[in-house]
Amino acid sequence: MKESIAEPGILVNLRSIPGLDQIEPGDAQWVLGAGVTVAQIEDHAGLRRAFPGLHEAAAEVASRQIRNVATLGGNLAQHSRCWYYRHRDIYCLKKGGDTCHAREGENKFHSIFSGNPCISPMVSSLAVILTALDATVVVQREGETVTLTMTDLYQRAWDNPTLHHSLDRSDLILRVEVPTRWSRSAYLQVAEKAAFDWATVSCAAAVRVADGRIQEGRVVLGSVAPVPYQVAAANRLLQGQTWSDALGGSVAERLLRDATPFAHNGHKVPIARALIQRALRHVS
Amino acid sequence: MRDHAGLTGAKEVCDRGTCGACTVLLDGEPVYACMMLAIQAQGREITTVEGLARNGNLTALQEAFVDKDASMCGYCTPGFVMSLTALLRRNPHPTPADIHHACAGNLCRCGTQPRIVQAALQASGVEVLSRTEVISYAHLA
Amino acid sequence: MPTWPEKRSVLGRRVRRADGPLKVTGAAKYTSDVQPAGCLYGMILRSKWPAARVTGIDLSEAVRSPGIKAAILVRDGERRVRYYGEELAAVAGTTKQACLDALRKITVRAQPLPFVVKEADGIQPDAPRVWDEAPNLSKPQVTERGQVDQAFAEAEVVVEGTYSTQVEIHHCLESHGNAAAWDGDELTVWSSTQGVFSVREGLAGNLGVDQSKVRVISEFMGGGFGSKFGPGVEGAIVARLAKQANAPVKLMLSRFEESLAVGNRPSSIQKVRLGATRAGKLVAYELDSYGTAGVGSGAATEGGGGGAEFPAPYIYTIPNTRVQHRGVALNAGAARAFRAPGHPQASFGIESILDELAVKLGLDPVELRLLNDPSEIRQREYRLGRDRFGWREKYRLPGSSPGPVKVGVGCAGATWGGGGGGTRAQAQINPDGSVEIRCGTQDLGTGTRTVMAMVAAEVFGLPPEAIRARLGDTAYPPSGGSGGSTTAASVSPAVYDACEKALAELQQQTGLEDVRGENWKPACRRLGLEPLVVSGQWQKGLSSSGVGGVQFAEVEVDTETGLVRVRKITCVQDCGLIVSRLTCESQVNGGIIMGIGYALYEDRVMDAGTGVVLNPNLETYKLPGIADIPEIDIVLVDMPERGVIGIGEPVTIPTASAIANAVANALGVRISSLPITPDKVLAALGQVKELTA
Fold this sequence. Notes:
Helices cover 30% and strands 19% of the residues of chain A. Chain A is an alpha+beta fold. Chain A folds into 2 domains: 20-79 and 120-179, Uridine Diphospho-n-acetylenolpyruvylglucosamine Reductase, domain 3 (2-Layer Sandwich); 184-283, CO dehydrogenase flavoprotein, C-terminal domain (Enolase-like, domain 1, 2-Layer Sandwich). In chain A, strands 1-2-5-3-4 form a 5-stranded antiparallel sheet. In chain A, strands 6-7-8 form a 3-stranded antiparallel sheet, with helices on both faces. Chain A is globular. The mean pLDDT of chain A is 97. Chain C is an alpha+beta fold. In chain C, helix 6 (196-207) crosses helix 7 (232-245) and helix 16 (581-600) crosses helix 17 (655-667).
């Protein structure tokens, strides 16, 4: 709003809707209201025990001042941080124009995967860990309540350059349900600054371990694609395996196979590779 | 806050929630004043830097800021003071890492950060000794 | 010639900053906090084109916009604009929103012109010209000493490399801005400035009024770093708006505007060649450098100007040197003085190639410097710093640290002039014993108030808290701009002189021999009703110029992610007479931290396609945060016999060079362009695939 990218005539304060700011533990799943602040997630001791990766991701979100007001729903539905999109005097593809300036321009922070000509990446760190945790999102849509997977929540942005997520204008995120079946989870990011900086690449991993073997695993990347990026085939590589660096390497290779970096963001590939290894090593 | 209440301690530096100079406490928790509409604060308690010292007595943190020279131009100082006031209430014995985490959202251009960490530690009761030395040139081999 | 007292009881001590309590309570009033009754807001309309011919600007709708009390053109008639963000028009209104709305109602007729915003594009012969009269790339300024070609031919070792530094933005936390109020034909301006007198001079000239009718006040200011000496275009605008509106107007720039139009440090692209004997003695040096000062390159000469030069071969004395500097004009905001103008660039080029030479010769980088550095002071500082830093234990052959997180060390030296002069001060001793010191200098956050109080306290035998130091007002005795690390060296002698004279006067008037310390109050009471007011001025002998300083850096580099983290900086800095130890140490921290920003994070990013600054904010123009700051170990070298010398600038010069050398030492490959970001580190390590498309 301050850069006049959005000029709404009416603002509705979602924070005044009762009941959206609750964190409810459960045996099969935890339920987090869309109005829960990122600071609430960061500070919640039980949540931290259940989902360490979610705590780690929340603690990396912006700064304490932002986390105190930023909500889970807002974090998931946030818009692109692309510096062309955010510039008040640049009319780009994402704003409805016909050019993605980043493709031939300053694309150091942009996507290495995209299903459309806009290469501004999805940067929500909570989305990355919640995707790894196989969370579902309950959305109020035209009077109905629908449940979306995290993949559903972003899928439409994969091939539509003007979108940031799959939500329609009247959709409202009500809550996020996080299954407890994971044994361990982790979130890591690399940013140029030690804190309060957007991730160059972020990576979340979650595994279910039984009998010393990984029964099920998820690895998800952020800041590399218009959606939280995962590859089912890469996740499958983990199934039934015990941890080794070689396993991590092959997951990374599979996950990054289709990367198409631009002139200034080729470094995201080795950074992603390192983070995939480290996150998996950590949870395994 | 600044224009109507005359409370100019909180500064406008970036106006985009990136620098922390406008940090105030909303019901005791630090927030960026520049990222909050007045209507969102309805019915809630706002503490600005002007509200910390009582009857001219600086808080322990403010005293420590002066002692350790944790301000230079002073423009970022109120914001840091507010972030750390909230931290010390939440966690009276912070580690340097806790202090870094609490102040990640505050920028300083003059370079007071090392002394801000020292001030916060001192305010938490940890004695911080400066290792800085003055050596006479004559004694320099 | 006067001298400082041999025995000093206040000077050199750690004394609390005089205005510290005001700063920690929010009571300190900066220009942005000033709100004269009925004050309006001012706001500027800026060019959306990086280059254009502006044929007409229509203010009529803006004038009629609700709440608008004044609207002006910055310049009448047809004009060229040469960068995105150049000032076109301005309004004053009752609220910021009223101004924002009004700016949107101004229509600008303009014919966009081709533009160029990248150095590499700007030097091309067919690049669009920023100034019509000459090509963007200036004619080289060449200085040559000795027999360069012959020396290179005979040199036993030659190394060469290209080193580049980025455009850095000052980003003072208080933006540039002023509040202006007219009373008849007299103008009062509150200004966020490094020079109240230079702002007065600039404004009076610009407005065509007598200097005597302009008063400039800057009681507190939120940082300058070289960018705030004059009133700027925005200063003239606010005075004109206030005149037209017949009401006070305050105009503070936004962070966005700060990124475009109020100065920066020029870039440099330095091709360096260095010849030496096998023992490491430097014999030949050649530099071919260019850089941009934006539209400032060529502004004075309407094309082909410089603005990006720097001293070379900097602190080293080499018998045969050829130095060539060129400036390239670009459609970008003009450079301004920036903390140690030219020196960090100069240091980065020479200290980088010097370490390359050390690698080639298999020499320890400190030894190489001891062999070539002509300064005895820095020689001693290197030896002390080496031990204190633990250089011998930490230094390993380049790249030999085990990975994946490799550790490395580096060092670099600096020089700076500084020096004092041209300042007057006034001491007022009141009958109740209270003391006021007045000087028309300003406190940038360096601690000038504290310095003034400490000097007076030393002379009068009083505690510094007993002295009220007043500054930042052209109503006080004149002093120069606070730049070039000259403030302490200018102000301290003037205050000393005034206080010494006041002390003598007090003795004479009261007939008392000893009026200091506990005799002070009874003596002052004898003044009766009339305070004693005595003027003094800067005196030779109490200050001098020329400092060195060396720094050591220890870094760790994650070779898998490209992240660099500075672990430690050790700084050994000669200081002359240390006046205020606490604020002096703070300045050293500040210089080093600014150097860390220059080394690792800061970079103004221009977009070749649109001509705009892509990171006009503190989100993507990255200043170091508190977690990015390493352990900083400071040794101040006290040389009281030299008098007061400023140190604000030398301490920022060698930091980035030392860090870059430490990174090269860790990795065994050099990242030769600042800032050293993960993408560059990974590319240097061969981890980024070359694009085939």
